[in-house]
Design a protein that fits this description.
The structure is a single chain. The chain is α+β, with helices and mostly antiparallel strands. It folds into two domains: 101 residues, N-terminal domain of the delta subunit of the F1F0-ATP synthase (Peroxidase, domain 1, Orthogonal Bundle); 73 residues, 3-Layer(aba) Sandwich (Glutaredoxin). Helices cover 64% and strands 16% of the residues. The chain is built from eight helices and four strands. It has a four-stranded mixed beta sheet. β1, α7 and β2 form a beta-alpha-beta unit. α2 packs across α3. The protein is elongated.
C-alpha cells in the first residue's frame, strides 16, 4: 500500500511543482480528504464497490466544481477514481506532504512538552533545530502532562531528549560512575 501511495504522491508532487501550484494542491488535497473523512455517507459512497464509477465521477465533479479546485487537483482525484485508488487517499495525502516537504527542504519536528512554550523559546528551538538539520524546520506541538519539564523533539527517527527526566538520569549516571 505504501508503494502505491508514494507512486501517486510523487506524480502529484512533480506535476504541482512544474505548474507552481504545490501549495494550492496541498491545501486542496487536505480539504478534499477532510471532507471525505468527516462525512460518513460520502466515505461510504466512495468506498462502496456497488456504486458505479460514472456516479462517483458525476458526484465528484459536482463537489470539485463547488469547491473551485485547481485543475491538477481535479485531474488527480479523477485519476484516483478511474484507477480505483480513492481508498488510498489518506495514505496518499500523507505521502504527498512528506515528499513535498522533502522537495522543499522542510522537516517536521514533533515537540513534546509539559506546558506551552512562549514565542521566543519556540524561535530559539527552531533556530537550533535548523542548525542541526541544515533544513527549514516546522514545529508540531503536543503536551504530555507526565513530562516534568523541558522538551523532547523528534525529527524522523532521531529523538533529541531535553527533558528534565533525561537530565536527571544523566546526572545520576555521572554520580554513579564516580
Amino acid at each position: 500500500m505504501a508503494a502505491i501511495a508514494n507512486r501517486y504522491a510523487k506524480a502529484l508532487v512533480d506535476v504541482s511543482f512544474q505548474q507552481g501550484l504545490h501549495e494550492t494542491v496541498r491545501k486542496e488535497l487536505v480539504e478534499f480528504h477532510r471532507l471525505v473523512e468527516d462525512n460518513r455517507e460520502l466515505l461510504h459512497f466512495y468506498t462502496n464497490p456497488a456504486v458505479p464509477l460514472a456516479s462517483k465521477k458525476a458526484v465528484t465533479g459536482e463537489i470539485l466544481g463547488r469547491l473551485n479546485f485547481s485543475q491538477p487537483t481535479r485531474n488527480f482525484i479523477f485519476i484516483l477514481l478511474d484507477n480505483y485508488r480513492i481508498n488510498y487517499l489518506a495514505e496518499i495525502v500523507k505521502a504527498f506532504h512528506h515528499l513535498l516537504n522533502e522537495r522543499m527542504g522542510v522537516v517536521q519536528a514533533e515537540v513534546t512538552m509539559a506546558a506551552g512554550l512562549d514565542r521566543a523559546t519556540q524561535d530559539r528551538l527552531v533556530s537550533r533545530l535548523e542548525a542541526l538539520t541544515g533544513k527549514k524546520v516546522v514545529l508540531q506541538f503536543q503536551a504530555d502532562p507526565l513530562l516534568l519539564g523541558g522538551v523532547i523533539t523528534r525529527i524522523g527517527d532521531t529523538i533529541y531528549d531535553g527533558s528534565v527526566r533525561q537530565q536527571l538520569e544523566l546526572i545520576k549516571a555521572r554520580l554513579s560512575a564516580q
